[in-house]
Structure formats: C-alpha cells, structure tokens
Amino acid sequence: MPRRRPGALRAERGTYDGRRPPAWARDLPPVDRLPPEASAYVHWVGRDEARRTVDLLYRYRAFLGTPGGRLLLTPSECPACPGCALDDVAVVRDELGGLHHSLPPRAATALGRVLRPLDAEFRRRTLPDPAPPPDDRPERQGLRDRRPWWRRRAYDDM
C-alpha cells in the first residue's frame, strides 16, 4: 500500500488543528486587544499580519470614534490602490472579515470578541442604504442582497 504524503495528511487535518503556534510567535508582543494565544496565531499566520491587524482595527475604531451622531461611509478616492482603498471603512471591515476567517478557531473567536462591540456600534451609528444598487440580472430578481451587512450601509453623496 502506498504511503500518504505529509501534505495530504496536513490537508485532511487542517492547517492549525491540534497545533500550537511556535515559541517565537508566543514571545512577540500582543496584537491590539487580543489575548496572548490569539496574538501568537496572528503572528504565525503571516509575516506582517500583526501590523496589518493593528492598522485595520485602528482605522475601524477611528471611524467609529468620529464625534457626532450618525455616520455616513465615505468611498475611497482611489479604490484600485491598496493603501487608498482602506479609506473606505467597508473595505477595512472586509479585510477584518477575511482575517477572521483565515485564523484558527480559537484566535478567530478572540478576534470575534473584539469585533462584536465595534460592529454593534457601527450598526447603531450608520444608516441602512435606502437605495441599494440595482441588479438587472433576471436570476437575482427576488433574491436577498448577498453583500455583507456593512456593505449595505448609506454612503456620503460627496
């Protein structure tokens, strides 16, 4: 019987199942308000992932910390540029959602605990989009809008 390749075994088991981050990742400083174990996973997932996570959470909190009552999302002036695209808080939330899904279960749960109150504040201070973009495709008629909830918030008309 042929031997199974180690890569195939890891693929079945999953990337992080039953594995702890290496010691070097546990020795690095914590990421934002994540617990040490979750911070170690963020450091382990990617080389610059920790800095990126801190930057994304900072941008999200900065938007929510804007004084006043209701907030309107502002589209990016240059959505094709990776740096400028993050001026739109919906893109920031997309990135945080992608990071949340790329983390192992424990770290994703910890990041979810950090995001939950921020998302509640985001929902409370922004308005639903009164006129969602039209979709003329016949197969989509009558179906729910499949965009994430943060993409269905009102934008500033600039």
Based on DSSP secondary structure assignment, what is the total number of beta strands?
0
User: What's the SSE pattern?
Assistant: HHHHHHH
- Alpha carbon gap, first and last residue: 67 Å
Measured as a percent range, the helix fraction is 40-55%
Separate helix tally: 7
Structural class: mainly alpha
Binned strand content = under 5%
Which of globular, elongated, flat, extended, rod-shaped describes the shape? globular
Low-confidence stretches: none
The biggest sheet, with number of strands, parallel, antiparallel or mixed sense and barrel status, is: none
Average pLDDT, to the nearest integer? Answer: 82
Oligomer: single chain
Radius of gyration: 19 Å
Structure description:
- With 158 residues, the chain is mainly alpha-helical.
- It contains seven helices and no strands.
- Helix 3 (36-45) crosses helix 7, helix 4 crosses helix 6 and helix 6 packs antiparallel against helix 7 (105-125).
- The longest helix is centred in the last third of the chain and has 21 residues, at 105-125.
- The mean pLDDT is 82.
Give the helices and strands, then pairings.
Elements (H helix, E strand, L loop, with lengths): L5 H8 L9 H5 L8 H10 L3 H16 L17 H4 L3 H14 L2 H21 L33
Helix pairs in contact: 3-7, 4-6, 6-7
In brief, what are we looking at here?
With 158 residues, this protein is mainly alpha-helical. 49% of the residues lie in helices and 0% in strands.
Key structural traits:
158 residues, single chain, mainly alpha, globular
